[in-house]
Amino acid sequence: MKRILIAEDKATSRELLRTVLQQQGYSVDEAEDGEEALRKITENPPDLILMDLQMPARNGYEVVSELRKDPRLAGVPIVAVTASAMQGDREKVLAAGFTSYLTKPLSLVQLRQEVTRLLENGA
Amino acid sequence: MPERQPAKEDPARANENWARDGQAEKRFRRLLDAAPDAILEVDGQGRIVLINQTAEKMFGYTRDELMGLNVETLVPASMRAGHVRHRTSYTAHPQMRPMGTGLELRAQRKDGSLFPVEISLSPNPGEEGGRVIALVRDITARKQVEDRLKAIQEQYTAELATKNQQLEARNLDVERANRLKSEFLASMSHELRTPLHTIIGFSELLTEELEGPLNDKQKRFIGHILQDSRHLLELINEILDLSKIEAGRLELQKEEMDFAGCLREVIAGIQHQAAAKNIQVDVRNEFNGTLYADRMRVKEILYNLLSNALKFTPDGGEVWVGAMVQAHELQVVVGDTGIGVHPQEHDTIFDKFYQVGSTTEGTREGTGLGLPITRKLVELHGGNIWLESSPGKGSRFSFTLPLPT
Predict the structure, then answer these.
(1) Distance (Å, rounded) from C-alpha B182 to C-alpha B166?
(2) Quick check: helix, strand or coil at residue B306?
(3) What pTM was computed for the model?
(4) Which residues in chain A are contacts of B197 at CB distance < 8 A?
(5) How many beta-carbon pairs below 8 A join chains A and B?
(6) Counting Cβ atoms within 10 Å, is residue A9 exposed (0-12), middle (13-18) or buried (19+)?
(7) Residue B331: its pLDDT value, please?
(8) Which candidate in A37, B172, B184, B245 could, as Cys together with B250 as Cys, close a disulfide (CB 3.0–4.6 Å)?
């Protein structure tokens, strides 16, 4: 069973993502802030990471730049999930090392498609 | 005995001529004295040999004191040496000219006080030789006016500089406020979208009924939540868009773009909305060239106008879009057979949050921001937008986009 880690500080948002992903048949792990995400990912690398950009302790940009230094995690897709809708955010996110970018509010269809695309193709 | 006198020299007549000559000199004297300028004649050694009354008054000397006085006495001490030099060279090349062109000349009274003057010189080549006539004009009053004017001018210049500084400071304040406003809107938009994310997400989850079946009432209620939260999201997005446009922060990503393809995509996007009202959108595009424009924003303009047309047109009505080149511009028209707009509302309809009084039954309310955004987007591209419509006669929205040169 493929494992997905959700790094997100808001409990309701974590539950929404967890529910959708578990319905799809994935195993889900959760982290409430950047530090916890970094620890859990390096201890036990998941197959996919969904990460909010604004988190306490360490934000998504900091976590992703740490993760990309670890050769074991080089191939793990990391999807940025953000409520920010400013111009230029997408470029900034991809330049930081994220694999792709989803904006809140998420469409469930889009979320499922993106996860399937990243986990079922080439895996 | 009135006998005719012979025409030869007559002593009495000679006497009469003498008297006339004396009379003439008096008249010349009065003429000199009436002049508002001081008139001085100076001999080759610089001695004053002739003056008028004005000279006495101007310099404060009596006639007797002035006659024979060295003319340098009337020159300020600091200028005397120079004056002697200039006088000598003038005597060598006499000609009528103003003295000290471009300099601020001053003369000295008997009491030592100085006053500004203008002097013109003319040679007087009499039998004595080397004499010069000087006309001296006291320009104290004129200088005072000039100085006053200069002071006023300097005061205005200083005030203007202060005003400019204040204006620059205010501009900085405005820029700062504008930046803060944009940052506030960006973060507000972020904060509003975060809870909407879970409201919409959980509503969608429930309507999928994967967690268990819903009864009809529950489905309807959740449908309302979903519809209104999507409406709220649209509103937030449009407010953010409009504020970005107004803050000058929305930058067009211009590129060479194919208009016909762009239009096809928009038509495909509104097909669902059109089919729901049993309307066939008629496309009459005559333009197959390229535009230099922001593709996404051109689509947004077309989408806003077409979805508006569909919204205000009753079931089974007509909606069409036409495009053609007119006067070196692309002109696009979106028309419908909808409820129309009263001419009084043709301008206000482009204002923020303005909505026409009545909509067709069953249409979802809009945000009231679609047309203002559409107009701003057209104008950002350098085009115009306008409406032709009247109640019951449908509406024609037209806009222009510049063609690449």
Answers:
(1) 24
(2) helix
(3) 0.57
(4) 13, 16, 83, 104-106
(5) 56
(6) middle
(7) 95
(8) B245
